Amino acid sequence: MKVWKFAAIASMLLSSMLSILVCRDMFNGSRKYSPLPSSPSSSRASSSSSSSSLPAAPRRSPRALQRHSSLLSQYSSLLESYTEGEIRQLISALVERYSQAMNSGGHELPLFPQAGSRRKRARARHKPCALKELEVSVSELGLGYESDETVLFRYCSGTCEAAVRSYDLSLKSMRSRRRIKKEKVRARPCCRPLAYDDDVSFLDAYNRYYTVNELSAKECGCV
């Protein structure tokens, strides 16, 4: 996530906190408002018709206004004083609290699951080249055999960003400049088997015996 996204999230959160505090302070201060002073004539008129007249509208005192203005300036300066590292720590703490709330049965928020899925996809794209295995049936191998027997299929998976050489960078530049157009070339190393496992033998659905060589990978590397 970019820095401006961290800053935007932190700004929204701090603005919400500021609004809550200001509203609470205004609600508490509204109880201390003093009524408007009335003239003697209006006092006599109000005393003669006290049963039908409405109470005077409250007026906010200058001290309350100064207090609210000071509070706004304090929180504004607090918001501006946050550094990039502090914003990252704040977001990390919020994500951790959100994860704890979700594990305890909390409601799902729309913002953080998207960020979490993006991080998961990024981690999946940057996993190094490694050997993995999967138990499959012979029919699932796609080699034309029909059999219910299962084999352990080992394959290579991952990226090879650390194995990029000057050749790959130059080849990518030539392709972008359209100096190489028709040839099918790959401008980055691939995660491929460096050695293959032993031969695999099995019986098909018609009790015929087959042996397949170089089926599973034994060692993987970037080539």
Strand % is: 15-25%
What is the rounded distance between the termini? 31 Å
The neighbouring-strand order within the major sheet is: 1-2
CATH superfamily of the largest domain: Cystine-knot cytokines
* Tally of strands: 8
Specify the overall morphology. Answer: elongated
Question: Mean pLDDT, as a whole number?
Answer: 72
Low-pLDDT segments:
33-54, 106-112
Number of helices: 6
What Rg is obtained from the alpha carbons, in whole angstroms? 36 Å
Keywords: Disulfide bond, Growth factor, Secreted, Signal
Family: Belongs to the TGF-beta family. GDNF subfamily.
Subcellular location: Secreted
Biased composition (Low complexity): 34-59
Attribute tags:
Cystine Knot Cytokines, subunit B; alpha+beta; about 220 residues; elongated
Overview of the structural elements:
One of its GO terms (biological process) is nervous system development. Residues 118-223 form the TGF-beta family profile domain. Keywords: Disulfide bond, Growth factor, Secreted, Signal. Mean pLDDT is 72; it is low at 33-54 and 106-112. A two-stranded antiparallel sheet has the order 1-2. The protein has a two-stranded antiparallel ribbon with strand order 3-4. It has 6 helices and 8 strands. 46% of the residues lie in helices and 18% in strands. Helix 1 (3-30) packs antiparallel against helix 3. The two termini are 31 Å apart. The chain is an alpha+beta fold and 223 residues long. It folds into 2 domains: 3-29 and 61-125; 130-222, Ribbon (Cystine Knot Cytokines, subunit B), CATH 2.10.90.10. The radius of gyration is 36 Å and the shape is elongated. It has helices spanning 3-30, 40-48, 62-80, 84-103, 111-125, 166-176, and strands at 34-35, 58-59, 130-137, 150-157, 191-196, 200-203, 209-212, 217-222.
